[in-house]
Amino acid sequence: MNDKLSSPLFLAILCTLMAFASLSIDLYLPAMPLMERELHGNVELTVTAFLIGFSIAQLIWGPISDAFGRRLPLFIGMLMFIAGSAGCALSMNIAQIVFWRVVQAFGACTGPMLARAMIRDSYSQTQAARMFSTLFFFMAVAPILGPLIGGQIIRFCHWNVIFEVLMLIGGLMFISLFALPETLPKENRVRFSFTGTFHNYLVLVKNRNFMRYTLCLTFFYVAAYAYMAGSPFVYIRYFGVAPQNFGWLFALNILGVMAMSMMNRHLVLRYSLKQLLKVAVIVATLAALILAVVVKIKFGGIIAVAMAILLFFSMNGIIAANTTTAALDSVPSLTGSASAVIGALQYGSGIVSSLLLAFFKDGTPWTMAWIMLIFTLASVVTLLLPHATRSDIEATA
Question: Average pLDDT in the 274-288 region?
């Protein structure tokens, strides 16, 4: 393995790339109620728009990265992210923000999508699982700092300053990409064509093992995004938490993710990914069930809600790393396209969450709770589906 691929700088750049989705959403979570009052529109649509752009664009960038390498799409993506952030900062209404959030998302998605591909380019399955756990540990700083910084920004500045900060982060990231090595050598690249791209995606969708792990992650993230999009209104409006303090409740969950990510680094050396995933998804389902019950019977108040969500969210430290590793390992020759499908479904899951929250919003935590429970149950069911044999895979290839 190239020494550059194991250097602290390589790790730092990958961590930042993986955090781009979190940075783009979490930083402005505390400002959402304020933006909704000032702009007189449904600010949750800006989350939906971002996730739509984030999902669709990955399906475009994936085949491009398999044909032209990982670095070129990253450079173009960072420029689009900077432009989108600037547009959001200058927007005067919800419609304008929605448009620029899509532009921002088309650029931001190259970060986590290509970081996943570069890890699979560079490491074996066990090493990749450990590497993903390390990345999820460090990238968890973004969801911790995002709401905290965002809360302090709107305390002293206008909400558009948040997007100016994102523009600055994009600029710094663009400069750092010059130090990033290319992980896909020319001899391993594939010729780009629209028919070839369609065929590759068809192969991925028909691969039972790939889709099993990918859908397990997707359903879990529908539940997780229900919390991320719904929590500002649950904590700030329903429970009366000050916007500048909301970040601390959000940070509590990320500390749980960080702890489980580090634990997963050691557990993958002793147990199979399948065993770890089963336990983690079942625990997450029990946590979602507890949340739904305490919300429905109004027991325990904010403490009961926060503790149930902590247990649920902590499992992300195991589920995200291991499903990603298992899915990519099942299709090693289509890493870029596979990473695109994973990312498209993973972040597209937030579209489902935000639309359900917007449609069924009732001013209480109940909508968030039942969405989390239903889709975590779906994640369990998907994971327990029979594992495909080699003959099954060859029959669908």
Answer: 94
Residue 393, pLDDT > 50, answer no
Considering Cα of 201, then 61, then 131, then 351, what sign does the dihedral take?
negative
* CA 230 distance to own-chain centroid: 16
Question: Torsions phi, psi of 378, nearest 5?
Answer: -65, -35
Q: Give dist(CA 371, CA 385) in Å, integer.
A: 22
Domain architecture of the chain: domains with CATH: 3-183+192-396 (1.20.1250.20)
- Inter-residue contact 276 to 374 (CB < 8 Å): no
| Contact predicate 81/108, CB 8 Å | yes
Tokens coding 46: 């800006």
**In 3D, which of 36, 41, 91, 46 has the Cα closest to residue 350?**
46
Backbone angles phi, psi at 253, to 5 degrees: -65, -40
The pTM score is: 0.74
- CA dihedral sign, ordered 223, 311, 381, 295: negative
Distance CA 26, CA 38 (A): 19
Residue position matching structure tokens 């523009």: 167
Helix, strand, coil share (%) of the chain residues, nearest 5: 85, 0, 15
Q: Is the dihedral of CA 106, 148, 310, 125 positive or negative?
A: positive
pLDDT tens-digit readout, 297-318: 888 889 999 999 999 999 998 9
- Distance of alpha carbon 137 from alpha carbon 248, whole angstroms: 17
